[in-house]
Write a structure and sequence with these properties.
Its EC number is 2.7.7.65. By secondary structure, this protein is of the alpha+beta class. It folds into 2 domains: 211 residues, no CATH class; 160 residues, Reverse transcriptase/Diguanylate cyclase domain (Alpha-Beta Plaits, 2-Layer Sandwich), CATH 3.30.70. It contains 13 helices and 5 strands. It is elongated.
């Protein structure tokens, strides 16, 4: 047990350092704290001559619950609410159970094993449910927790049904079982630590990728990322035969907002419009802050009539928005130009944007706060 504790201490130091260097990643913090609590419980168990075993059992299982909470945060991508209430309730419940079982080492071991098996199942379930999970890391995570749960399931069966373990009163009497679990525990701790750090590195890579691809104010694609995604979308449309539409949206008289209310208010307006645009777009559509107060929306599997309906809906929703950024309240309008993207088009993305820009120019010329299409329709030309 002391060897296991020292091994865990080495691993937990690595996780604590990683958590200290990355305070914005709650999962790694709970994984480090969880292993720290397991270390404490192992040390208490090694001192079972003076400290009751029920205390060390409660501490170790509480460490497992903290590991599960870290996996929960990893799945959510942020901290999970209700931590103190949940972990407090779990601590009281399992401490009470171990206290009443302190006179029976056998049933204490069975209960502890059952808790570990349940936590192993929860750990696998949390990571499997992560969106955009890294397949290799997910397999490795599931593998170590399956192995860990299987060893404790074997332990539970032996202490439950094998007559040799029916009357054990010390860990030494169950050495044949405990030795294998201790050995597996050493392997598990090192493997778990490495996978946690790999998850952290993957999380940081994803964060850097997101920062490189998205506009920091609006969280929409930046121009470079949009161009890459749009070119791929055009290629996909050629193969699938799907038509699309490209919308160019420009906030009317946005310079006046900055001049009259300040750049902070202008940023608030841009962020709010990006939210309106995101809510209007479908999952397969591409949204982009093209530059300044200009935005792009590439619609897939959409005809011009549907695009006009969507453009009008965006225009109307935005016209009704009120932005509180000091006094007075800010209102704004948007002009929208859109152009078809035929499935067999050989036009470049730049040429498609130019067509949408021509339609946008017509919308501006007609008094702003309207939608125009390319090629221009008679209705678009009317004052």
């Amino acid at each position: 047990m002391l060897v296991l504790a020292l091994t865990t201490a080495t691993a937990v130091i690595c996780l604590l350092v990683a958590a200290a260097l990355n305070p914005r990643v709650p999962a790694i913090r709970f994984w480090a704290i969880g292993l720290t609590v397991v270390v404490l419980g192992a040390l208490l168990q090694s001192a079972r001559a003076v400290i009751p075993l029920w205390i060390s059992a409660a501490v170790i299982t509480q460490g497992y619950f903290l590991l599960w909470w870290g996996a929960r945060c990893h799945r959510l991508g942020h901290g999970a609410g209700g931590f103190w209430q949940v972990t407090g309730a779990l601590l009281v419940c399992q401490s009470t159970v171990f206290y009443f079982l302190q006179d029976s080492l056998r049933f204490s071991i069975i209960t502890h094993s059952a808790i570990v098996i349940a936590v192993a199942a929860l750990m696998i379930g949390e990571v499997v449910r992560v969106r955009r999970s890294q397949r290799t890391l997910t397999y490795a995570w599931c593998g170590i927790w399956l192995m860990h749960g299987a060893l404790y399931f074997r332990r539970l069966l032996l202490y439950s049904f094998d007559p040799l373990y029916a009357s054990v009163t010390t860990f030494e009497q169950g050495e044949a079982v405990e030795a294998l679990n201790y050995l597996e525990g050493i392997v598990f701790i090192y493997a778990f630590t490495m996978i946690c750090i790999m998850f952290l590195l993957r999380s940081l890579q994803d964060e850097l990728k997101t920062q490189a691809m998205h506009d920091p104010l609006t969280l929409l694609y930046n121009r470079r990322a949009f161009e890459q995604a749009a070119r791929q979308r055009l290629e996909d449309n050629r193969h699938s035969g799907e038509h699309g539409v490209l919308l160019l949206l420009d906030l009317d008289e946005f310079k006046a907002v900055n001049d009259n209310h300040g750049h902070a208010a202008g940023d608030t307006v841009l962020a709010r419009f990006a939210e309106v645009l995101r809510n209007a777009a479908r999952e397969q559509d591409l949204t982009c802050r093209f530059g300044g107060e200009e935005f792009l929306l590439m619609l897939s599997n959409c005809d011009m009539a549907q695009a006009r309906q969507l453009a009008e809906r965006i225009r109307e929703v935005w016209e009704q928005q009120t932005i509180q950024a000091g006094e007075p309240v800010i209102t704004s309008t948007v002009s929208i130009g859109f152009a078809p993207v035929p499935a067999d088009t050989m036009l470049s993305l730049h040429e498609l944007v130019e067509r949408a820009d021509q339609a946008l120019y017509q919308a501006k010329q007609q008094g702003r706060n309207r939608c125009c299409s390319w090629p221009l329709l008679e209705a678009d030309m009317q004052h």
